[in-house]
Amino acid sequence: MTDILTGVFRTFTSKTDVKKDLTVVPASACSALLLGDSSISRSVLLLSAVTAASELGVRVVFFAQTQIQSLPVSLKKCVPSLSPESLKKIKFSYPRTLEELLQQVASLHESQNTSPTPPSLIIVDRLEGYLGGTHSGDKSSAAHLSALLCDSAAFLTQILKERSPSSAPCRLIASYRSEVDSDYAGGESSATDHILDVLDRYFQMRCTLDRDRSYEAAAAGLQELWHVYLSASSITEDCTTDSETRPAVAKEWQLLISADGSMEFKMA
Amino acid sequence: MRSLLPAVAEQLFRDIQKAYQETSQIPDDLLIALKFVFGPCALQALNLVDQHSVTCLSSSSGRKAFQVIGGSGRLYTCFVSCHYCPCPAFAYTVLRRNEGPLCKHILAVYLCQAMAVTQEESVSDQQMSAVLSGTALP
């Protein structure tokens, strides 16, 4: 059992590291955009939600367009001791349209959502589902949604601090899969995805999940090997004055998914 | 809306705040600086300030948002902690062409804050949600 437990701890340790890194970013709230294939993004989002709820004991709101029927196998393997109590801290919401999502995010400040404690993590699965199929004029919709999410997280941070000055800020993680290039690996191709340009303006960090299809990964007996790059967004308001305090270099992890579905993070 | 602007703009708003507190007007050199930093937006924003177009809405939850009445009479909702405006200029100049960080409505919010001339209005939590999500009737 210990090897599984160490695996779990390692997973949690690296997850907490991610969060600690994010808190270094100097705005009041911490936001990250997860880029990659939607199935792996959803697993990482669920793992973040479960880690926040069970390890940090905080409330989480999880927005997704399609219902999550059951936790992915990989997650069950990672968190064998998952308790129903900690799952209760996660509120799953399934807005179907952009308008419904906007309304639900906009109402997060209302008392039924902030008592007894406000959420400390807002997660949105598959932003492209809400913004997809939109024409070029809908960069404004992407901006509205991102700005509303960031502003809501900033407000909840303020409420959390008022109730307990030592509390951590409310974080925001959303996943997005670029339609321009599904094998998106950062850098150049972002110029062609106008929605991504807009999202980058509001999300401070970018976490890119890039699948390693090399022979070595297959030879190591792994089901899947993903490179996880954490970096400051490329075009966050370019006039920001705090560029020195932003992490200068990208941080890299590896996400290993074994044949039995268990997930493990490693510093690369 | 902290640390979203270049240092020069931040300093400019602080100077305007100080000057306006002392003399109830913005001296010419600061007006010129404003025009230099923000271009044609500056004059339009000052017009909005003169017309008392900026209102800070707050609800009992403590949530705040700005509403700016545009030249056409349309209401634009701007957020407290990040730059967003539903106006066409923001979509075109800021989001599409990446020319500058804001539109005249957001600049008017900054100026009203610096000059302490923002109108205040209380709304219910539900009204605030509707305003933030853009579903409120103008």
UniProtKB/TrEMBL annotation, chain A:
Entry's Gene Ontology BP terms: double-strand break repair via homologous recombination
GO molecular function: single-stranded DNA binding
InterPro entries associated with the record: P-loop_NTPase
GO CC term (a single one): Shu complex
Name this polypeptide is given: SWIM-type zinc finger 7 associated protein 1
Species in which this protein is naturally found: Eleginops maclovinus (Patagonian blennie)
Upper taxonomic lineage: Eukaryota, Metazoa, Chordata, Craniata, Vertebrata
Automatic annotation (TrEMBL), chain B:
Annotated keywords: Metal-binding, Zinc, Zinc-finger
Assigned GO CC terms: Shu complex
Keyword Zinc-finger: yes
InterPro entries, alphabetized: Znf_SWIM
Domain SWIM-type: 76-114
Biological process, per Gene Ontology: double-strand break repair via homologous recombination
One function term, GO molecular function aspect: zinc ion binding
Presence of the UniProt keyword Zinc-finger in the record: yes
Protein name as catalogued: SWIM-type domain-containing protein
Native species: Eleginops maclovinus
